[in-house]
Amino acid sequence: MTEAPKIESGLIEVREAHRFDEAKLDAYLKQNMAAYEGPFEVHQFEGGQSNPTYKLTTKGGDYVLRKKPPGKLLPSAHMVEREYRVFSALADTDVPVPTTHLLCEDPEIIGTPFYVMDFIEGRVLRDAVLPDMAPAERTAIYDDMSRVLAALHGVDYKARGLADYGKPGNYFARQVGRWSKQYTAAKTDDHASMDNLMDYLQSNIPDDETTCIVHGDFQLYNLMYHPTEPRVIAILDWELSTLGHPMADLAYNCMKYHQAGEMAALIYGGETGIPDEEAFVADYCKRTGREKVDNWNFYLAFSFFRLAAIVQGVYKRGLDGNASSSAALSMREVFTATADVGWAIATR
Question: So what's the pLDDT on residue 332?
Fold first, then answer.
């Protein structure tokens, strides 16, 4: 009896809801992608709750395909077109991004718009505690994360052709409005912390119009590191990127310091090799020439509010039956906890 071929770790057979016409895609790539040598073998990446992502294995190389999910989508969500644009714009900067090959906005090919980029071999470190590493290696991992974030925020977005990638200034007012609408559209029942956060954020927006490219989901799990070195080789998942305020990315990255409750002091800092929140923020400020961060509670509370809105959207898609992951229906508890922490930070 012949054994079934082993599927690479992190990959699964394509979910039924995310299947597409493989012959049609093969024909399209042969006609439109110079580097492509088909046919391909396709598997789906298990991780991620948003855009279905696939590995295409061919005799000429391996590629990653990202597409919008099927079904009715929330306004401005799942913008794979924006991911493709920012990857292309940052191709020869100090910001590590994958090499892109094509963008297809025609839904007739595989059902929704998609793009194709190179598959990069590396490590995605999903646990921010880095449990299997020595303290010195943890320090180096976090140091390069800080370096890459500072590099992103230092890019001259106008010179890279991204002057219209978002609206300069008034970022937090627009974001609070946007995510309030997104949350309301995906709302399934009332939650006091979320309602209180919306009111607090609308009334406490800082007067600071600093503008740069923001990633929108800058966390360790969205960075790919070199297979053996503590060096970031790609920033992943740019669908929330835009022109905005740098503190949005920094605060979002620092949410982990508050999600562990009283355990946070034991997990980060001290002898672990991982900088605590104060040290990480100070290092970023040194790299970007910023003296300090005012209104830190606002930025953190906004980060928890936005994440809660995103998680609620995932939960709603799970109820509707078109989520990218089978874990979507368990997101209700995550939403509640996220909103509660955000409100606690706003009132501390």
Answer: 85
